[in-house]
Amino acid sequence: MANEKTDEGLKPAVGVAGLALAVVNGVIGAGIFALPGIVGAAMGAFAVFGYIFCSIMLAAIMLCYAEAGSRVTTSGGSYAYVAAAFGDFPGYIINWLYFFGWSILSSAALMNIIADSLAVLFPAFINPVIRGFLFFVLIGFIVLINLRGAKQGIGFIKLITIIKLLPLIAIILFGFSKVKTGNLHWDHIPALKTFGDTVLILFLAFAGFETSLGNSGEFKNPKRTVPLGILLGGIIILVVYLLLQTVTQGVLGKEIAAFKDAPLAAVAEKIIGPAGATILLITAAVSCFGCVISDILATPRLLFAGANDGLFPKFLGKVHSKFATPQQAIITYGALIFILSISGSFKQLAILASAAILIIYLAVILATIKLRSIKQDASEKTFRAPGGLLFPCIGIASIVWLLSSLGKWEILSTIIFIAVVCVIYFVTKKFKKKKTALVSAENIM
User: Fold this and answer.
1) CB 109 within 8 A of CB 346
2) Are 241 and 51 in contact (CB under 8 A)?
3) If you average pLDDT over residues 201-224, what whole number do you get?
4) What angle do CA 155, 160, 165 make, to 5 degrees?
5) How far is CA 228 from each of CA 58, 204, 211, 276, rounded to the nearest angstrom?
6) Domain residue spans in the chain?
């Protein structure tokens, strides 16, 4: 049954407040340091409606996650929901798409924000060679830390969370005194294509809440915790984002296009002078670095587990003989982030990452609809999104519309990636059957 909880041996420890904070921390990341400038330059004061659109879309997606999460209470998040509804093959594709299409691309995009932020202070970082060297050093440093163990990294991540949130709160509190109401009026409504293209990039700042559901096997009363936790977290995210965009647009106005690489730093400079800009630029770089550290700490471990379960290539399951860390998974993951970091700008990588996560969200919405058709025990009370198919349809329509904004290159890249994953799945499955047959033959002999 879809809602039957598997005994994973995990201790339930996460409640509504804990999940809500995890969602906020997972979503409000480093991207928000750059995105207000990108969407403001494209749409002006009308950008606030981009946030509203994303929030409505996110609410529809979150409701589907809340419903699926109350039914499928084993660990795995998006993968678990899709696999429960449609089987191993679709779940396999979603798992690969999440790790390689979303996690790696988003980390590569954040590496570019680091370089863009530092380039404002040190123009030498505009040079592609120097940027590449910076990426190599930073990613190499993170990989080396992970190869030796993750204790130091975990403590650093906690510090980074505080560092990235405090200046954002300060900008909201002190920035309103500098807002000019004339900057919040728009002269014209942007073209539908411009709106769609911009929202596709903006959605990167709203994605990531599903990562907090990966350890759903450790939730207290998941049928209550999942829906309430992610909805409370979503409300907090929307309020913070709307306030940040309003202050940024209200302070910079038409000048926002000149500061699209570091808009919040420009606002900080308007508030407290040049020192404010320097503080925000360093904060943005540190925040991005912390997000990448967090990703390289967690994701290779999941790749390692997936390799042992047959979801990923077997070599990713090798352990370092001295430090007992998943060395091949860490090195491979870091190398892929480096390659993608030097191959594209933040905007390009953000579009590809958004495309990947949108496909994952679409699969979960469809899984939610499918799970409704699976009968469950009458004694099991699970959350069901209100309005019947209203919110799933809003989510599906929004995602399909945004995906239609992709360029030919992004569409082709996504199709090729999924095709390669399908080939890997069937080749791996065929190899396993042959191996099983050989083992059975040897046992008979």
Assistant:
1) yes
2) yes
3) 69
4) 140
5) 15, 23, 16, 37
6) 16-373+389-406
pLDDT of residue 202: 85
Inter-residue contact 268 to 277 (CB < 8 Å): yes
Question: What would the CATH number be for the domain defined by 16-373+389-406?
Answer: 1.20.1740.10
What percent of the chain clears pLDDT 70, i.e. is strictly above it? 82
Nearest to 16 by CA among 231, 239, 237: 231
In terms of phi and psi (left: phi > 0; alpha: psi -120 to 50; beta: otherwise), the region of 278 is alpha
Determine phi and psi for 150, rounding to 5 degrees.
Answer: -115, 5
Cα–Cα dist 404/179, whole Å:
36
Q: Please say if the pLDDT value at position 189 is more than 50.
A: yes
Query: pLDDT tier at 443 (50, 70, 90 boundaries)?
Result: low
- For the ranges 90-104, 146-160, 374-388, the lowest mean pLDDT is seen at 146-160
Q: Is the pTM of this model over 0.85?
A: no
Mean pLDDT of the chain: 80
- Which whole number is the average pLDDT over 305-333? 76
For 149, phi then psi, to 5°, come to 140, 165
Distances (CA, A) of 14 to 19, 65, 141, 219, 354: 6, 17, 32, 5, 28
Radius of gyration of the chain (CA): 22
Helix (H, G, I), strand (E, B) or coil at 221: coil
* Overall average pLDDT of the 146-152 stretch: 62
| 145 vs 153: CA distance, rounded Å | 8
> 23 vs 153, 206, 232, 397, CA distance in Å?
20, 10, 9, 24
